[in-house]
Amino acid sequence: MIKLRKLLWLGFGILLVGGACRQEEEYSDGDLTEITCVMLEIRNEIGVEAGDSNYVFGFVSDVVRTDSLIYVVDFAKAHIAVYDNRGAFVRYIGGRGSGPGEFTAPVKLLLSGDKLLVQDVNGLLMLSRQGEQLSYILQHEGNVPRQHVLVDDTTFCVAWHEFILDDEPLIRPFIGIYDISGAKIAELWSDIIKIPVAPKDNNDALNTLLFGHYFASDGKGHIYLHQRHTHEYRILCYNREGELCNEIVKDCELVRKTEEEIALEKQYVEDMLQGWGTSNVIQWVYEPDEYREPIGGLWVNGDGNLWVLDGSERTPTFDVWSVPEGEILYRAVLPVDIPLGDFITFYITPHCSDIAAVYEDMNMVQKVLLIDLIH
To answer: Of the given ranges (110-114, 137-141, 189-193), which has the lowest mean pLDDT?
Structure first.
């Protein structure tokens, strides 16, 4: 069960095995340019293993940090815990139930003006900041979108899939843009997977369905999309109508994973599949890529800059780009020494220039880290 819970969010975090920071390096984004390396620092943390229940997490599935508040979505406890910017508990939003403003198991939170968009396992709800339910936007009844970002105050983007039960059953994974009423505006990408999946296609199907893309938004109408498993550092920029506007490309060298990294990844993915009970659709066998992915995640922070997690580095390292221009600004590094097998997941939002992360140890004890850029 430990591995299952970690792998549900593997696409947004990294397993850490330590490493060193280089203060300066030669960097190429088309032209050879010397890029400054700046430090990130853990300034505070929220969470305890035992004690005050307001600080004991069941399973954190999302964190949204603003300049004044930190919202922590607890999937297991079916509520959102709110803390001030020093980490002191303020209040809860929601709770387990089927009534207005209650959740079955909340997965994701988006802030839209003075509204909260909460992705529960049964659908997407709109709440006031006080927790009053205002509307039910989308129903998905367990077919939960895997990623979810706010494009602007009236539009959001999700990675989702649908089942097509014709003569030949199919799964159609797609990335769609919707308005706040739940009407689809456009699709950025889609694919077709025949089910049951043939053994020779199993790995490709898993990668397409579960680990297909990273994407982020600045909340002002731009979406940034990276297709995984291509060994390319390439990010496409779209507008809210789904039109391609720009792309960011960087040359990078492939870094081979260690045998231990491959074994851990294989075990995590297979534990996740077994927990989901997908053996009648896709097999429980997964063979990880032997190379680390050049990009390990995308986010836009409160300064409007695109943060790109360098998947080839063992120490958490981000390329920070100005967008939509696509100019590299600096590299940001969190100099941490975390044992192999522990897990860190980053949460960066357009609501704050600083970032948050969830650190989970091998005993599944989680803490929310408040991480600031050292200016």
So the answer is: 137-141
Specify the residue for token string 């996740």: 272
Sort strands 170-179 and 147-152 into parallel, antiparallel or unpaired: unpaired
Out of 3-7, 132-136, 280-284, least confident range: 3-7
What are the structure tokens assigned to 208, written together? 């397409």
Q: What is the dihedral of CA 302, 306, 180, 103, to 10 degrees?
A: -70
> At the topology level of CATH, where does 2-373 sit?
Neuraminidase (2.120.10)
Output the DSSP codes for 148-193: EEEEETTEEEEEEEEEE-SSS-EEEEEEEEEETTS-EEEEEEE--E
Give dist(CA 312, CA 364) in Å, integer.
25
- Please work out, in degrees rounded to the nearest 5, the angle formed at the alpha carbon of residue 71 by the alpha carbons of 68 and 74: 165
Domain ranges of the chain: 2-373
Q: Distance from first CA to last CA of the chain, Å, rounded?
A: 40
Strand partners, 80: 73, 93
Residue 87, number of CB atoms within 10 A of its CB: 15
Q: How many CB atoms lie within 10 A of CB 291?
A: 15
Q: Above 60 in pLDDT, residue 280? A: yes
Q: pLDDT tens-digit profile of 125-153? A: 999 999 999 998 888 766 888 888 999 98
Higher pLDDT, residue 129 or 282: 129
